[in-house]
Amino acid sequence: MGPGLGWLALLMVVPCGLIFTYAFFERGLYGGIDYIWTFENFTRAADPLYLGIFLRSARIALTATAIAILIAYPAAYAITRAPKHWQTALLILVILPFWSNYLIRTYAWIVMLNREGLINGALEGAGVIDEPLPLLYNSFAVVVGLVYNYTPFVVLAIYSSLSRINRETIEASEDLGASTFTTFRRVILPQTVSGVAAGGVFVFVLSIGNFITPDLLGGGRLQMVGNLIYDQFLSARDWPFGAVLSMFLIAIMMVLLFTQAVLAGRASGERTNS
Amino acid sequence: MSPRMPAALKLHMVLFYAFLYVPILVLMALSFNRAGLPTVWTGFSLEWYGKLFSADPIIRAARNTLVVALASTALATVIGTALAVGVETRRQSAALDALLFAPMIIPDIVLAIALLSFYTALNMTLGLHSIILSHVVFNIAFVVAVVRTRMRHFDHSILEASADLGASEFTTFRRVLLPAIAPGVIAGALLSFTLSVDEFIIAYFTAGAGQGSTTLPMQIYAMIRFGVTPEINAMATIVMGVSFALVLIAQRADKGVFTR
């Protein structure tokens, strides 16, 4: 165990601790750090300009999360209802793109959404539009990219909680005369809250800190927190401020993971109590 | 479950898989398009692949990627397997679980700047070695996760039986435990390799200045920033083909790796 824990301690815990401390120092004149205590980096993060970027990132991440869940839930449900010997193949088809290069999956949407791209081409060919739609380099494209990249994980998370549902609870509900919708709302949905939460937190966390998608599909015009952090480290060379922004990101992530753990704990508690 | 599936659900499933695969398939098809541009098909051609293999920066980037992926996979597989075995044979600890899970969920931009800050603070020269050190961090987490799930489906009393029969701890590991978890170890290694080959942000931040340690994803990023070109389509097709093949082999090695 020693080497593994040592590796993670030295190359994950210590570096994260380091940027945590950088957040409290002043930036050096030529980049780098001046070791003078200050809280100025934090007050600067509250500037409306940066607050606006945080809020926009949160809004985009939330939209992507909601859409991903709406697409993933019925897909996961359909997979659990497919014949048993198909289910593994269907799941593997879901995760296969997820394990391929993120840059390429994002680039594929530049090809799909650009002015001469497949979607505009098809719509023009069908005579639906005369002028190509501006589908690329805006928040729409960023949301599409995030949903595309992260929905597979949500399907897996929801599938895993759906497949753990005791089939008899559904039959009991149907035998007692509940409609399909009532059975779904009162029996199935409550038992999959932890799966939805796990998938949702994953999409939200990875979306709000994303750098590649806004950079490539937002055309660099649409800044999100990830791009802001990137700029502080590679172009503005204001490391302490970049460190503060990363801390916010980590804080949001921890709050969400904690909430999700509580939800999952409550769900499993209910299952053992009943 | 139930044999009948509502038509709306079936339609959703078809649209969902189309959403996942149409962009990828379009990209792959265009890599063989003579004109190399979207919308119009002008005939089959391997021209763009030829251009790719005669470009020195791309060949060098591919070589760098291979070095980084092989080294970080080898390190992470050994270290991660030992860690997984250690964790699973001891008492459960939520803190330890969180530490092992963290590299998978930390936004990669945060890990990237943290590592860059750390290496800079140590006055370390950056290059392929610093990318390798960094990739091992998240590769360990994936190897641990895969091997741990494999171990949970393993009857631990067999280990006690082996010890009772007088086998040393090392013999028990080599003759009893390792054969049982080997599929997980192999799958973990293949997934690590795939992750490392595809990883961009952490490599980008820890590669240092200069072209010497450019990896394939860094090269792809630079090309995409430059614009849509047929060469990218060709490269994307090769890189995706390799990833898909590795993931499918990992699944064959350890049947439950994705579905347990």
Structure description:
- The complex is a heterodimer of chains A (274) and B (260).
- By secondary structure, chain A is mainly alpha-helical.
- Chain A has one domain (48-227, 253-273): MetI-like fold, CATH 1.10.3720.10.
- Helix content of chain A is 75%, strand content 3%.
- Chain A is built from 13 helices and 2 strands; from the N terminus they run αββαααααααααααα.
- Chain A has helices at 2-22, 40-45, 48-81, 84-95, 102-113, 118-125, 139-162, 167-175, 180-191, 193-208, 212-217, 225-234, 239-273, and strands spanning 25-27, 33-37.
- Chain A has a two-stranded antiparallel sheet with strand order 1-2.
- In chain A, helix 3 crosses helix 7 and helix 3 (48-81) packs antiparallel against helix 10 (193-208).
- The longest helix of chain A is centred in the C-terminal third of the chain and has 35 residues, at 239-273.
- The two termini of chain A are 39 Å apart.
- The mean pLDDT of chain A is 87.
- Chain B has 260 residues and is an all-alpha fold.
- Chain B has one domain: MetI-like fold, CATH 1.10.3720.
- In chain B, helix 3 (56-88) runs parallel beside helix 6 (128-152), helix 3 packs antiparallel against helix 8 (169-198) and helix 6 crosses helix 8 (169-198).
- The interface between A and B is large, with 79 and 80 residues.
Short note summarizing the structure:
Chain A: Pfam families: BPD_transp_1 (PF00528). The complex is a heterodimer of chains A (274) and B (260). Chain A is mainly alpha-helical.
Keywords:
heterodimer; A: 274 residues; mainly alpha; MetI-like fold; 13 helices; 75% helix; B: 260 residues
Structural class given helices, strands, pairing of chain B?
mainly alpha
**Please, what is the oligomeric state?**
heterodimer
The name of the CATH architecture of chain A is: Orthogonal Bundle
Query: In this structure, how is the largest beta sheet of chain B organized?
Result: none
Distance between the termini of chain A: 39 Å
What is the highest CATH level, the class of chain A? Answer: Mainly Alpha
| Strand element count of chain A | 2
Helix content of chain A: over 70%
What is the succession of H and E elements of chain A? HEEHHHHHHHHHHHH
Biggest sheet strand line-up of chain A: 1-2
In what range is the share of β-strand residues of chain A? under 5%
- Helical proportion of chain B, percent range: over 70%
Strand content of chain B: under 5%
Rg estimate of chain B, integer Å: 22 Å
Subcellular location (chain A): Cell membrane
Domain ABC transmembrane type-1 (chain A): 54-262
Membrane topology (chain A): Multi-pass membrane protein
Keywords (chain A): Cell membrane, Membrane, Transmembrane, Transmembrane helix, Transport
